[in-house]
Design a protein that fits this description.
By secondary structure, this protein is an alpha/beta fold. It is 35% helix and 21% strand. The longest helix has 20 residues.
Length: 623
């Protein structure tokens, strides 16, 4: 039930779709993409499978380096991959103390929820099927039901495995379909025998963590209004070796159109799934993604709960057997159709297309009215007048947006409040001098997001003159108050699971290029001019927006170059300390946990790393 990579047999091509979107566009990867159309699919299949298997027994660091060079992992993913075994050893092991705590918590559940695990089956490897079933049977949480629908499998060993499982545990129910209907129909058959208040999705060759259903049940008990629960995930091979973890952010509504953020482990309130009609026929290969999008559209934002624990292990072996390009294209196409349906509910006229540098991921271009609203660009002038004037001329020449007003303001950002009061635009863009657009569509892109309901601040991708990232969103991080995300990466770097090339929600965006509605700016009081918050006044503004229920958006599709280098000032350290104290006094514990940062990922995005429960950085051996 995974969403992007096709399966290993022609008859199974709609079944075990796996994500290939995490592959890098490295130099070697670009070369492979260039020659791919001229190479027979069978040869590509053999080459990829052979490369992965030949490299499997190499030392981890060498294997990670080869995979990164060949375009099979992202640079940031490779950094996490290298530290992952140490993270598992420190964080993800069940000792006796933890086991007792879990069992005691389960005993305290007043009304333990029944969770129905949905598993459609069609001709998997019997050993993998058995492992998947055993992973449910071995759950620490006992209140489960396993609903299996066999979609007319032709392998006798599959039927034997299912009959043994049904006889072994009365909580396992098998539905035998007479005709093969593919994965959506089979999933609906499994769903039809579920009686739990919640349903969890499990592929017929994947594995659940022993505490997966306990963690889900604990969230259900703690959040009675939860409709959707999802967790972090990784891959597992036949030897039990885990790899390729995706430590996901908290609920990020503007990231899910880019890729299937919920994916595995995805758990849904059964009444919600039934209300939206279950799995849709015709979306095979991306049926989970389609279900997630339709469920999200009906659920409340506070009813979507993320568990920052790796609870689901994708079977790597099954995905690596063969590669069917035709099925892969169908999976991606069906995923785009699902996204189109999703965004069209609230944004008729939105265009869904491949993400430019990550073609298996998705970009949504939201519409701008024909009568484009006036944008007042408030340029913070710290340079000489002639330089500012030249910058404005360049800025105006490099936009295809038809309706803008430029106001030059002197001094620090606190004076932006007076400039906003004097402006005429319904949209405001705070902009530092020395910033130059690299593409004519940058302003239209920012406007398209600022006009969407519920959006607060919109930030752009700011690049240094040498082509490295300067600003790509801001995360709050305790005593350091704020950290820039992905600084110093190449502008073409995908980032961790594509986050540097996909629209996503962030806690804050840089005030060097920040757009929002004029009325919203005034509603929250604008930028503070008497609290000594600068240089964190942009973070403060964004936190005020979130406090009022708005969500802030960062887009990589508005890219600008900032030519003015940071200018160190001897008084900056003292000013930063005073501003940090003021922010801490104002926001308190709100600064300790960023909802869009996974707590297993270090807030220092200059070098992606993992942290333990004690929040100390995990560095691989040999470093």
């Amino acid at each position: 039930m995974n969403d992007l990579m096709p399966s290993d047999k022609p008859r199974r091509e709609d079944w075990t779709a796996r994500s290939t979107a995490a592959r890098s566009v490295s130099p070697a990867g670009r070369l492979l993409q260039t020659v791919r159309p001229y190479v027979p699919p069978g040869c590509l299949t053999f080459a990829r499978r052979g490369f992965l298997r030949l490299s499997a027994n190499l030392p981890r660091r060498l294997r990670a380096g080869l995979h990164s060079f060949a375009g099979l992992t992202l640079p940031d993913t490779a950094a996490v991959e290298e530290a992952y075994p140490a993270w598992i050893a420190q964080h993800d092991r069940l000792d006796n103390s933890r086991l007792r705590q879990i069992l005691a918590r389960i005993a305290d559940f007043g009304s333990p929820p029944l969770i129905s695990v949905i598993m459609p089956v069609f001709n998997p490897d019997p050993a993998h099927l058995s492992a998947a079933i055993r992973s449910v049977e071995q759950q620490l949480y006992p209140h489960w039901q396993l609903c299996i629908a066999d979609d007319a499998s032709t392998e006798p060993a599959v039927a034997a495995t299912l009959r043994e499982a049904e006889a072994r545990d009365p909580r396992t129910i098998v539905v035998w379909r007479e005709r093969n209907g593919h994965i959506s129909a089979a999933s609906n058959s499994a769903l039809s025998c579920a009686t739990g208040a919640f349903v969890a999705l499990l592929d017929h060759d994947d594995v659940l963590s022993p505490r997966a259903l306990y963690e889900v049940a604990a969230r259900i008990v703690d959040h009675p209004g939860a409709d959707i629960i999802y967790s972090d995930e990784d891959h597992i091979d036949s030897s039990g070796r885990r790899s390729h973890p995706y430590f996901k952010p908290g609920w990020n509504p503007d990231l899910i159109p880019g890729h299937n953020l919920i994916s595995h482990l995805g758990v849904y309130r059964r009444a919600l799934v039934e209300r939206i009609g279950g799995f849709r026929i015709g979306f095979e290969g991306s049926q989970d993604y389609d279900l997630a999008l339709r469920a999200v559209a009906e659920a409340r934002a506070d009813g979507i709960v993320h568990i920052p624990e790796v609870l689901y292990h994708w079977r790597q072996d099954a995905a690596d057997r063969t590669f069917s390009q035709a099925s892969h294209d169908r999976c991606v196409r069906n995923g785009r159709r699902a996204v189109q349906h999703f965004v069209s509910r609230h944004s008729p006229g939105a265009i869904v297309m491949p993400a430019p540098t990550l073609p298996t991921f998705t970009r949504v271009i939201y519409p701008v009215p024909t009568d484009a609203p006036l944008v007042s660009i408030l340029v913070a002038a710290r340079d000489d007048t002639n330089a500012v004037a030249r910058g404005i001329d360049v800025l105006s020449d490099r936009t295809d947006y038809p309706n803008l007003q430029v106001l030059v303001r002197r001094g620090e950002m606190a004076s932006a409040n007076a400039a906003v009061e004097a402006s005429n635009g319904s949209l405001i863009l705070l902009l530092n001098s020395g910033i130059e657009a690299t593409d004519s569509g940058w302003l239209r892109e920012m406007v398209s997001h600022a006009l969407r309901p519920g959006i607060g601040a919109v930030g752009a991708k700011l690049i240094n003159p040498n082509g490295t990232v300067r600003h790509a969103g801001i995360t709050v991080s305790g005593n350091r108050i704020a950290q820039y995300q992905f600084p110093g990466r190449l502008r073409s770097d995908p980032g961790y699971f594509g986050h540097l090339q996909l629209v996503r929600n962030v806690t804050a965006v840089s005030g060097a290029c920040l757009m929002l509605r004029r009325e919203t700016f005034l509603q929250v009081g604008g930028l503070e001019d008497d609290r000594g918050l600068e240089p964190f006044d942009d973070v403060d503004l964004c936190l005020k927006l979130m406090e009022q229920g708005y969500r802030n958006v960062w887009t990589p599709y508005a890219e600008l170059t900032w030519h003015q280098p940071p200018e160190p000032n001897p008084g900056d350290a003292h000013r930063m300390h005073r501003a940090a104290l003021a922010m801490r006094q104002r926001w308190g514990r709100r600064l300790d946990a960023d909802p869009y940062r996974n707590p297993n990922i270090s807030p220092d995005r200059a070098r992606l790393s993992l942290v333990s429960r004690r929040h100390s950085e995990i560095v691989p051996r040999g470093r």
